[in-house]
Structure formats: structure tokens, C-alpha cells
Specification:
The structure holds two protein chains of two kinds.
Chain A (H helix, E strand, L loop, with lengths): L1 H24 L1 H5 L5 H16 L4 H20 L8 H20 L7 H25 L2 H18 L5 H26 L6 H24 L10 H8 L12 H4 L20 E7 L6 E6 L1 E2 L4 E2 L6 E3 L16 E11 L9 E2 L1 E6 L5 E4 L4 E4 L7 E12 H5 L8 H7 L8 H11 L5 H13 L4 E2 L13 H9 L1 E2 L1 H14 L4 E7 L3 E10 L2 E11 L3 E9 L3 E5 L10 E3 L8 H19 L4 H10 L4 H14 L2 H34 L1 H14 L6 H17 L10 H12 L3 H14 L7 H23 L1
Parallel strand pairs in A: 11-19, 12-13
Antiparallel strand pairs in A: 1-6, 1-16, 2-7, 2-14, 3-4, 5-9, 6-11, 8-11, 9-10, 14-17, 15-16, 17-18
Helix pairs in contact in A: 1-3, 1-6, 1-7, 1-8, 3-4, 3-6, 4-6, 6-21, 7-8, 8-9, 14-17, 15-17, 16-17, 18-19, 18-20, 22-23, 22-26, 23-26, 24-25, 25-26
Chain B lengths: L1 H18 L6 H13 L3 E4 L6 H11 E2 L2 E5 L6 H5 E6 L4 E6 L6 E5 L6 H13 L1 E4 L2 E4 L5 E6 L12 H4 L4 E3 L6 H9 L3 H7 L4 E2 H12 L5 H16 L3 E3 L3 H17 L7 H12 L4 E2 L1 H4 L4 H11 L8 H4 L1
The chains are: A alpha+beta, B alpha/beta.
Pfam family, one (chain A): Transglut_core
InterPro entries (chain A): Bact_TGase-like (IPR052901), Papain-like_cys_pep_sf (IPR038765), TgpA_N (IPR021878), Transglutaminase-like (IPR002931)
Keywords (chain A): Membrane, Transmembrane, Transmembrane helix
């Protein structure tokens, strides 16, 4: 009777343990690219059960390999049949290559496949440990680590685990209660009936339910201390889970400076980054634009910053040509502690004032930062809201783009598949002017061919192009997919375009009366959250400058277009302004050939002074850009470093905890093939044997003679092999024997093998 | 290893012989053999009636040598055991009449019943292997093996042996009561006397001398010597011991360990040998502090405790390389 019900109680413990384990692992499906809950659940349940029931090693190994293989296939090679050698070879090669990268220290280049592979391997080990804990009843440890890991996830990621914590606490209470019951019953000699089991379980269930109820219904005070993650972020120590592509489901929830590897699903995080009082309408907040498409994401070609005086009356950089009408507006932005160190603005920045900070700007990207790239508390800006003139946009003359715009904003990677170019020319074929071509591309992307989704978004494989994958294969994506595709299509069609990142308008939360200058104005208040992070497109129109377009479905186009007649004759001047701004960047960067500089000098006139100033200032701080890019790759390095360190630490901890098992395995193998040739090999084999016995709990005390010890060993193993062996060994030690005859060598080797075999039998029983 | 074989044979023959008259004392017999091969003497201390004398007589008979028995009584004089010169009236000269001490195997029964004067004569002979009678020093034979018995000192009519003289004995053994089954076997046997007469010698004097020579050549490694010294030195520092083991004690311990290893068919000494003989070699060589001395077997217990705390020398990897 006790045995039968014990088995049931152990099954309950196992089930609850798996539930707790699952609750702890579930965030992985939100935080990483491994998004299938079913697969993860099956993976860990199967492995935990295999380990728990101590099934033969080959079976565990085989199942692990099949599951890991299935996982890799499921996430990375879904289009290929599971049982094809092709993807297996390709995956194996990728893992091999990446393993080499690890050795050579190029952690930044590790692929997602490898990260996933490492994750699966780590999960194996964790499953083993969990099964071990459940089996040996180390439930306090298990429970404690489960709650700790959940609170860590809650603290350090955007994933909210409050619900899980309550469930886990309740399940933990049950599991400990059941275990306690087993212990109590084994201690009391009298047999207890089913009744007491029932009572105990009812009491436990009531306690558990009460806990769940209290957990959900009880009042919850706000955070009792400021989130440590903000502190760490401010210190610059936590580039870790926000960058890196493996975690990119977590990465692309908000604003991130690193866009080099786009793709993966999007998490939703409603942390408020900044609150803005805006005098104009709701509009997109521009942070920076990027011009180099790599096939995987975006980089900036001119990362050079020059100091920006504030409050800056001059036009720091201009977006719009003379054909575009502007309306002057103001905004005051206050940043929350969660905000990245950005200074966003609407439209074209006219003046900016950040109290207590010195500023710098990158004219090429249109990015303003504090000089030390720290987070500002607030900013006051005045900006120009554009009203694009449709006629001017339609009436652009082909071939009038400034050379620098042509050079930079038509860039495409060599590896870009031809079908993208073909598609671009097919879409724009029917149109005769630039604006309509842009609109055709826009319509194409907003058509029902493509689905907007923040989840179920694939990532390009190693040799796949991000845009190509989206346009032809997956057709599911979010702003990054749409905006990047539009830029690439426009560029393929010969229209200069660039990729802009920032935030959408945010959530309207009322009106406020502010004093701007000396007047009181009513301004709208918007809250911009992490989930508002966005990307869109700017296309260049001679005369009108850079015009914003919104290719993402469900988002309204931010630009205001009007059909009103436009003034003429200033087209060239706008073009020149823009060019001037570009050449500033070029000189700052100091990589452009002199000839091109000379070329741009011819086209510039009005902004000469501006350029001159920028040039001198750029000379002082031209290294800032390099630091910027270095920092973002540093972040990735940190992520992969973290993964590798975790895997290594996990392996090391596990290896240490299970050292008796695997070390004794090693020693048994060693001893069963030992060949004793001389006293040295005999001595080391005998030492190994003693270590092995030590792992099995038979240790020679210091005051015990070899003989006494070997008799003890023989009592445990039956027979007298150890005594015989020790007889030979004693001659080494006490007779100072230095030679072992051939017959003795054979005999000694045989004794070692016999003892090794006995030990193996013993372990099996 | 022919010599080991014969040593082993000796012990088993001896045990077989002696077991015909006394049951269940293998270990004591073995120890007595060790003393014989180490060239030392044995003192057996125990209460009357456990078979000390029978045991010793059986062993003595197993050795084909001249056996003498001295029954110690309070009125025994030194000359009674050493022998004396008597005037021979025929040739008008003094003629030496050897006493019982001049034999090969001596049974000194109830040694503590005689006066210290006579005890001294015996002990001097044991230590110096010669006796001086009437100004003439006469050597004792090459094989000179004394097995003495005594009753525990608190029994009436005993003169306790002086401590300084006790260490003339290599081993001090005690027999203890037989186990229940052994005693049952004793009850089943006839009275020992006629069986004792049937014991045949199993080895000769020259055998013993040869075996002794071989036992002396048993190898003792430095580590074992150091282990032995660890034990000896520990007796000198032990808080319960007033007087520790002397260097003579160390020498005797080494001798006994060698013989023990030899009896165990080995030509090298292991720490187990030292451990096995040490209580018998050392217990009667130490003087316990006054408050500890009274208890029966206290000294042996102290020695055993000391041994239990001494680490065993075992070769490590570094030693062999």
C-alpha cells in the first residue's frame, strides 16, 4: 500500500515540477527567436522524463539529438524536408564555423542558428539537473531557483512574470507539501489509510488555491525600489539583452541604435520613454536616418559628429527644399528613466535646447545627441512641420539629384537578388514621374500581398537577403520589413531614398498650457512608449527635399501633402542646401575623395559659411562616429559573450555537480584497459582506483593501513581482488620494489580489470 | 621463497601441535613464534587456570631442544636456577653443575612468586645471555628462549617484577578467557596431560637458528621505520604516560615486526606488522601516570589508542617519481 501510493505521490511531484519548470522556461518563447511554445514544452518534458526515469544513455542521447535537430529544422530550415541531408549538412557546417568563431573570439559574428543550438544544449543540461532534483527530492533548491529566475526575468526583461510567479509559488507549495507528506509517512511506522492522503491533499489544495487567490486578488503596491535595469543601463553595463540577434524578439521592441541585423518577431513593451508637449499635430519623431543597406540591416556611412551650439538659431541641417512649405512649431520633451540617450524631433529641427548638456550632431543621419551620449532629462525644440506640394513632387526633372545624394542614397548591396530589381522596375513601369513611382511602390507594399504582424516574423538565413526574404518568401512583417523593402525598391528604381527611425506619434493624453518664450500656448501632450518605436522612409525630390513616406500598413502617412500652387525658381537653392549639408558630413568623415569634394563645392553657395563652421568643428570631434559604431558592436559582443559564459558556467556547474558520475565512469574505463608495465603505471593506476573508490564512498582514512582498507573494499565488493592487488602494491611502497615481473604485470592488470568490473556491477545495482 | 614457506610451515605445525592440548589460542601461539624467531623472550600474564602453563609446555615440546622448567617459589635461590659449583671429592676439584637456566627452552612458571633476588638472576641471564657463577662467566646456549608466566600482581603472594627488568621480555601476552565454544571444546577433551606427552617436536635448534637469521634479513623501508618511530615518540609525549618507550623498545619493536612479517611469509615489513605487534611489545615498557595505572590492561589500551592516531605512510605519486 505505501509503495503504490508513494508512486502516485512521486508522479504528482514530477508533474508539478515539470509545470514549474515550464513556467520558468516559457518566457524564452517571448524573449528569443524560439517562439514555439509547443516545441519547447515537448522538448523539456521529454528530456526531463527521460532523465527522471534514468533510461539508457543512448536513448537519452538519441532523443536529445532528434529534438535539437527538430528544433533547428523547425526554426531555420522549415522549408526543407526534415529528413534531408542538405539542411543537416548546412546546419552542421554553420555550427562548426561558429564554433571556430568562438575559438577565434569573433563572438559578434555568431549566427542565430548557433545561439539556438547552444540554447538547446544548455536546456539539455538544465533538464538533467531538474530531473535530478525532482528524483532526489532537492525541491527547496529547485523551487528557490525557479522563483529567482522568474523574478530575474521580470526585472531584467520586458516580459512580465507576475502571473507565473503566483502559479509557481502555489505549485511549489504543493510540491513541498507532497514531499513532506512522503517523508512524514515514511517516518511513522503505523500504516495510514487513503483517508489521510485525502485529507492532506485537500489541505494542500486549499492552501494552494488560497495562495493563488490572494496572489491575484490582493492589493499590489508599485515597485518598492527603482528598477535596477535602468541604473545598469545608465551605467552602460546593460547592452546585453537589448542587442544581439538571438534575443532580437526582445530587442526590437523599442528604439535601438543597432539596426545591422533586422528581423525576428517584435515584442510589445509599454514603458513610457518620453512625454512630449507638442504645439503642432501628432507627428513622427525622427531620431536618425541610415543610408547603407547591408542585406541584413542598416548602417550609417557617415558617422561623424560635430558640436552643436544651443539654443541653435541656425538650421542645423535641412530636410526640405524650397518647394516644401513649412509651419513652425514647438515642443517640449521630458524623458523617462527608461529612455535611450536620444534627442528626437519632429520634421526639420530648427532649434534645440537641452538644459545642462552640450550637444553634437551628425548632419548626415540627422541625429542629435548629447555630447557624452548620455540621456538628457528634457529638451525644448522648435521645428518645421512640412507641407509637401504635390505638384512640385510630380514635376521633378530626372537627373537633377545632387551628386552626394546620388552616391549615398542609391546604394544597394552587390548581393541583392536580381528579382528585387526586376520587381522594382515592374512596379514603377507604368509611372512617368518620381512621385507616382514612389506611390506605386507604396501601394504595392500596402496591398493585401503583405501581412502586418509583430509575431511570426522570420529572420533571414545566413545567405539570405532581408528584403528579398520579406518580399518573396515570408510576406509577413512589421515596420522594419516594410520600410526597408520600400527603400530598397525605390533605390532599385533609381529613386534616392533612405531609412529613417524614430517613434510614431504616441498616445494622446490631453492638453497642457505651456509658456513658450513669453506667450502662453495650448499644447497637446503625447506619451511615447517603447512600443511606438518605428521606422519609415524618406525619398528625395529635387526642390522639395526629403519627403517622408509610410509603407507600413495600419500606419497613417505622417506627411502632409497639398495641391496648392507652389512658388517657383528656388528649386536649385534647396538642392544646394542639402548638398552643402552632405558635404559637411563628407569632410567630417575625411574619407571622400578630394575630387568629389571639389565637385560638391561647385554646387554650393548659400550654405558655405555653415559648411566652413562645421568643417572646423568636425576636425575636433571627428572620432566620435567611430566610437559610436564601436559601441554597438561591443553590445553584440557582450550578448554572445554572455551566452558563451552561461553555457560554459552551466556546463562547469553541472560537470562539478555530477563529477562523481562522469569521473568514475572515466576511471572505470581507464582501469578496465589499464596495462601495468612498471611501478609508475602501477602506482598511477592504483591511485586512480583509490579515487574511484572515493567517489563511491569508500575512502581510506589516514590511519588505516592499505591492508585494512583493501579488506574493507573486498567486503563491499566480495572476493579478495583488492587484497591481492594491494599485496602487490605494498611491495612497491614498503619493499621499495622497482621492477615488476611479466607474470606479475599480467596478474596485476587482471586484478584491476576484475575490480573495475565489480565496481561497474555494483553501480548498476 | 623457500624460507618463508618453512616459516609458515613452522607456525602452522606449531599451532596444530598446540591445538591438540589447548583450544582457540592461535594468535597467542603465533605471537610466541614471533618472539622465538625474533630471538626475544615472552611473558604471559594472566589469571591462574586459563592454560598458560599448558600452552607454554606444548610449545616447548614442539621444539626439539633441551627443555627446562623452573617452578618459581618464594624460597628459590639464584643458584637454584643458574647452577652451582660442587666440590668433587674424587678428583678434588670444584665441578660446575649447570642449573635449569642453561637449557634451550626455559619455562619460568609463576615468575612473580619468587624473590626479586632470584628474579634478577633470571633476568640478567635473559638480557646478557650468560650467567656468572662463582666468578666464572658461562655463556648460555645459542638458542635461549624464555617463556615466563605470571599471575597479575594484585593476587596474593606475588613479588611484582621491577619495571626496569620487564623490558627484558620482547612480548608480554595475556591469554584471556576462552570463548564459549572454545571452552566447550575444552570440556569435551580429556585432561591435557597425556596429549601433551604425545606432542612431537616439529623443528630443531638449527632450524630455529637458520630461521632467525632469515628473519633478521627482512627488509624494512624508511617509511615503515618512520612509522614505527612515530608510535614510539608518541608514547613519550602522551599525557597519560609518565615514562615512554626507550630506544631499546624501538629496537625490539622493529625486531618483532620483522619476525611477524617473516611469519606472514613476507620479506618486507608493512605497517600492519608494526601495528600488530606494537601493543604486545610496548605495553609493558611504559609507566602510566598514577591515576591510570590501576586498571587492568590500561597500558595496552593506551598504546592501541596511540596507534589509532598515527597516520600510515603510503606512497604518493611524488615519492615514486
Amino acid at each position: 500500500m505505501p509503495n503504490v501510493s508513494n508512486r502516485w505521490l512521486r508522479a504528482v511531484i514530477l508533474a508539478l515540477g515539470i509545470f514549474i519548470f515550464w513556467e520558468c522556461m516559457k518566457p524564452v518563447t517571448e524573449l528569443t527567436i524560439l517562439q514555439s511554445q509547443t516545441f519547447l514544452f515537448l522538448f523539456l518534458v521529454i528530456l526531463v522524463l527521460l532523465f527522471y526515469f534514468q533510461l539508457p544513455l543512448w536513448l537519452i542521447g538519441l532523443s536529445g539529438v532528434i529534438l535539437t535537430g527538430y528544433g533547428i529544422h523547425f526554426y531555420f530550415y522549415r522549408n526543407e524536408p526534415y529528413l534531408s541531408a542538405q539542411w543537416i549538412l548546412s546546419a552542421a557546417r554553420a555550427i562548426g564555423d561558429n564554433a571556430l568563431l568562438v575559438w577565434s573570439g569573433d563572438l559578434a559574428d555568431l549566427s542565430d542558428l548557433f545561439s539556438a543550438f547552444l540554447f538547446f544544449v544548455l536546456l539539455w543540461l538544465v533538464c538533467f539537473v531538474v530531473a535530478h532534483w525532482l528524483k532526489t527530492g532537492r525541491l527547496y533548491m529547485f523551487f528557490f531557483l525557479a522563483v529567482t529566475s522568474l523574478s530575474m526575468i521580470d526585472t531584467f526583461t520586458y516580459y512580465k512574470t507576475q502571473q507565473s510567479i503566483v502559479y509557481v509559488a502555489a505549485a511549489g507549495l504543493l510540491i513541498l507539501g507532497v514531499q513532506r507528506y512522503i517523508v512524514m509517512r515514511s517516518r511513522t511506522s503505523e500504516a495510514r489509510g487513503r483517508q489521510s492522503v485525502g485529507k492532506w491533499i485537500i489541505a494542500l489544495a486549499i492552501a494552494g488555491l488560497l495562495l493563488v487567490f490572494l496572489g491575484f486578488a490582493g492589493p499590489k503596491p508599485g515597485p518598492q525600489w527603482p528598477s535596477p535595469i535602468l541604473y545598469l543601463q545608465n551605467k552602460g553595463w546593460l547592452g546585453v539583452n537589448t542587442a544581439g540577434s538571438f534575443f532580437s524578439a526582445g530587442q526590437r521592441i523599442g528604439y535601438d541604435a543597432d539596426d545591422t541585423h533586422l528581423g525576428g518577431s517584435l515584442g510589445m513593451d509599454s514603458t513610457v520613454l518620453f512625454t512630449a508637449h507638442v504645439s503642432g499635430g501628432s507627428n513622427y519623431w525622427r531620431v536618425a536616418s541610415k543610408d547603407v543597406y547591408t542585406g541584413k540591416g542598416w548602417e550609417s556611412s557617415g558617422g561623424s559628429y560635430s558640436p552643436l551650439m544651443q539654443p541653435s538659431g541656425e538650421r542645423a541641417f535641412s530636410l526640405y527644399g524650397s518647394s516644401t512649405k513649412v509651419a513652425k512649431e514647438t515642443a517640449t520633451v521630458s524623458f523617462s528613466a527608461a529612455s535611450p540617450p536620444i534627442l528626437p524631433y519632429i520634421g526639420q529641427l530648427a532649434a534645440i535646447n537641452v538644459p545642462g548638456k552640450q550637444l553634437k550632431m551628425n548632419p548626415l543621419a540627422g541625429q542629435v545627441l548629447t555630447r557624452d551620449e548620455s540621456r538628457a532629462k528634457s529638451e525644448q525644440i522648435s521645428y518645421l512641420e512640412p507641407i509637401y506640394q504635390l505638384q512640385a513632387l510630380r514635376n521633378t526633372t530626372p537627373g537633377t539629384d545632387p551628386p552626394l545624394v546620388r552616391e549615398q542614397d542609391l546604394q544597394l548591396p552587390k548581393e541583392l537578388p536580381n528579382r528585387v530589381r526586376t520587381l522594382a522596375s515592374r512596379i514603377t513601369a507604368g509611372e512617368n514621374n518620381r512621385y507616382d513611382k514612389v506611390m506605386a511602390v507604396l501601394r504595392y507594399l500596402k496591398s493585401s500581398r503583405f501581412t502586418y504582424s509583430t509575431t511570426q516574423v522570420s529572420r533571414p538565413a545566413r545567405n539570405q537577403d532581408y528584403v528579398d526574404q520579406f518580399l518573396f518568401d515570408t510576406r509577413v512583417g512589421y515596420c522594419d520589413n516594410f520600410s526597408t523593402s520600400m527603400v530598397v525598391l525605390l533605390r532599385s528604381a533609381g529613386i534616392p531614398a533612405r531609412w529613417v527611425k524614430g517613434f510614431s506619434g504616441g498616445t494622446y493624453s490631453g492638453e497642457a498650457m505651456d509658456t513658450v518664450g513669453d506667450k502662453k500656448v495650448s499644447r497637446s501632450v503625447y506619451e511615447i512608449r517603447n512600443a511606438d518605436a518605428h521606422s519609415w522612409v524618406e525619398a528625395y525630390f529635387p526642390g522639395s527635399g526629403w519627403v517622408s513616406f509610410e509603407p507600413t500598413p495600419t500606419f497613417a502617412d505622417p506627411g502632409r501633402f497639398t495641391n496648392a500652387a507652389q512658388g517657383n525658381g528656388k528649386t536649385s537653392s534647396a538642392g544646394r542646401t542639402n548638398t552643402a549639408e552632405r558635404s559637411t558630413a563628407a569632410t567630417g568623415q575625411q574619407t571622400r575623395p578630394q575630387r568629389q569634394q571639389a565637385q560638391t563645392k561647385q554646387t554650393q553657395n548659400s550654405a558655405g559659411m555653415n559648411r566652413q563652421q562645421a568643417k572646423t568643428k568636425a576636425a575636433v570631434t571627428h572620432s566620435a562616429g567611430k566610437q559610436f559604431t564601436a559601441k554597438s558592436s561591443n553590445n553584440k559582443w557582450k550578448t554572445f559573450g554572455l551566452i558563451v559564459v552561461l553555457v560554459i558556467t552551466g556546463t562547469a556547474v553541472l560537470a562539478f555537480m555530477t563529477r562523481k558520475k562522469w569521473l568514475s565512469w572515466i576511471y572505470v574505463r581507464k582501469l578496465s584497459r589499464v596495462s601495468v608495465r612498471d611501478v609508475h603505471s602501477f602506482n598511477s593506476a592504483y591511485t586512480d582506483l583509490n579515487r574511484l573508490l572515493g567517489f563511491m564512498g569508500i575512502r581510506r582514512e589516514n590511519t588505516q593501513t592499505l591492508r585494512e582498507f583493501s579488506e574493507r573494499v573486498d567486503r563491499r565488493l566480495s572476493g579478495n581482488n583488492m587484497t591481492q592487488l594491494t599485496g602487490y602494491y605494498e611491495r612497491l611502497v614498503y619493499a621499495d620494489q622497482i621492477r615488476i615481473s611479466n607474470e606479475e604485470q599480467v596478474e596485476i592488470g587482471m586484478l584491476f580489470r576484475k575490480i573495475a568490473a565489480q565496481l561497474t556491477d555494483k553501480k548498476k545495482n | 621463497m623457500t624460507q618463508s614457506l618453512s616459516a609458515n610451515q613452522l607456525v602452522s605445525d606449531m599451532i596444530e601441535n598446540v591445538e591438540t592440548v589447548i583450544v582457540g589460542k592461535r594468535n597467542t601461539i603465533r605471537m610466541i613464534t614471533v618472539a622465538l624467531l625474533a630471538g626475544g623472550h615472552v611473558l604471559i600474564e594472566d589469571i591462574p587456570g586459563v592454560g598458560k602453563t599448558v600452552l607454554v609446555r606444548a610449545i616447548a615440546r614442539s621444539i626439539g631442544a633441551e627443555f627446562k622448567r623452573i617452578q618459581f617459589t618464594p624460597d628459590l635461590l639464584p643458584s637454584d636456577i643458574t647452577g652451582l659449583s660442587i666440590f668433587n671429592q674424587k678428583n678434588g676439584e670444584f665441578e660446575f653443575r649447570p642449573g635449569p637456566l642453561m637449557g634451550n627452552v626455559i619455562l619460568a612458571d609463576e615468575i612473580n612468586r619468587t624473590s626479586p633476588k632470584t628474579q634478577s638472576a633470571l633476568l640478567e641471564g635473559m638480557a646478557e645471555r650468560r650467567v656468572t657463577v662463582d666468578g666464572v662467566t658461562r655463556p648460555l646456549p645459542d638458542l635461549f628462549f624464555v617463556m615466563a608466566t605470571q599471575n597479575p600482581i594484585e593476587y596474593e603472594g606475588t613479588y611484582s617484577l621491577p619495571e626496569a627488568q620487564l623490558d627484558r621480555f620482547l612480548l608480554k601476552l595475556s591469554m584471556g578467557y576462552p570463548s564459549r565454544t572454545d571452552e566447550l571444546a575444552i570440556l569435551d577433551k580429556h585432561s591435557g596431560e597425556d596429549q601433551l606427552a604425545q606432542i612431537r617436536p616439529v623443528l630443531t635448534v638449527s632450524d630455529i637458528l637458520e630461521l632467525r637469521r632469515q628473519a633478521e634479513s627482512v627488509y624494512v623501508s624508511d617509511s615503515v621505520k618512520n612509522y614505527l618511530l612515530d608510535i614510539v615518540i608518541a608514547t613519550r609525549k602522551h599525557p597519560m604516560i609518565d615514562l615512554g618507550v626507550s630506544p631499546r623498545g624501538s629496537l625490539d619493536l622493529l625486531k618483532a615486526a620483522r619476525a611477524f612479517a617473516f611469519v606472514d611469509q613476507r620479506n618486507y615489513v608493512v605497517p600492519d606488522d608494526v601495528k600488530a605487534v606494537a601493543p604486545f611489545v610496548l605495553a609493558h615498557r611504559i609507566i602510566l601516570r598514577q591515576d591510570e595505572a590501576g586498571r587492568e590492561g590500561a597500558a595496552k589500551t593506551v598504546i592501541e589508542k596511540i596507534i589509532d592516531h598515527i597516520g600510515i605512510p603510503v606512497m604518493t605519486r611524488e615519492m615514486i617519481r
